[in-house]
Amino acid sequence: MPSHANRIIGLYEDHALAFDADRHRGLFEQPWLDRFLDLMPPSPSVLDVGCGMGEPVARYLIERGCMLTGVDGAPAMIALCRQRFPQHDWNVADMRGLSLGHTFRGVLAWNSLIHLERDAQRRMFRVFAEHATSGSVLMFTSGDEDDESISSYRGEPLYHASLAPAEYRALLEQNGFEVVAFVPGDPSCENTTVWLARYAP
Q1: 2-8 CB contacts, 8 Å cutoff, 24+ apart
Q2: Domain CATH for 57
Q3: Distance between CA atoms of 49 and 73, rounded to whole angstroms?
Q4: In this protein, which residues make up the domain named Methyltransferase (predicted)?
Q5: Domain enclosing residue 42, as ranges
Q6: pLDDT over 70 (residue 2)
Q7: pLDDT at 4
Q8: Considering only Cβ atoms within 10 Å of each terminal Cβ, which end of the chain, N or C, has fewer?
Q9: 81 contact partners, CB below 8 Å, separation of at least 6
Q10: How much is the pTM?
């Protein structure tokens, strides 16, 4: 499975235009995005980790007044973001080594953390903390149990992994975050498991 995990960036790079066409724009994520926004001041700076091609999630945040900094390892995805939203900041970078040198009012990792191996996920909580300041809001998605799995996209293996909820909770606490909300398999959000936390070191 590690080889499939290492293929994630290349897979999205190779299939960026196909993914752009396939990605549903119905924004089933909106209720959680609204909860995320409600915890921040108006016009917040938001770091979108694994932003993809910027739709529909980044677009919604931008339309709600956020100043977006997006990060994705696939250059073709970032090119689409820059084309659509040139007034915002888009960066080609592997989230596992991310160190931008400044903090944000919000940090989002929607359906991106789940593509990392479990040890890499554990290390990401230090990355989240590095880009947060007191009161910053973190929202991310995960699985609902300790597991690895392989699905497929456009005929290629697509890697997913998750830690157990108790470990995510411990990692959040160890890195200065307080859990605000946790809903495993939220039926109102296409059964997505969502975490919402606030940085309070």
Answers
A1: 2/117, 4/150, 4/157, 4/158, 4/159, 5/115, 5/116, 5/117, 5/120, 5/159, 5/161, 7/156, 7/157, 7/159, 8/73, 8/115, 8/116, 8/158, 8/159
A2: 3.40.50.150
A3: 10
A4: 46-131
A5: 2-199
A6: no
A7: 79
A8: C
A9: 51, 53, 54, 58, 70, 72, 88, 90
A10: 0.95
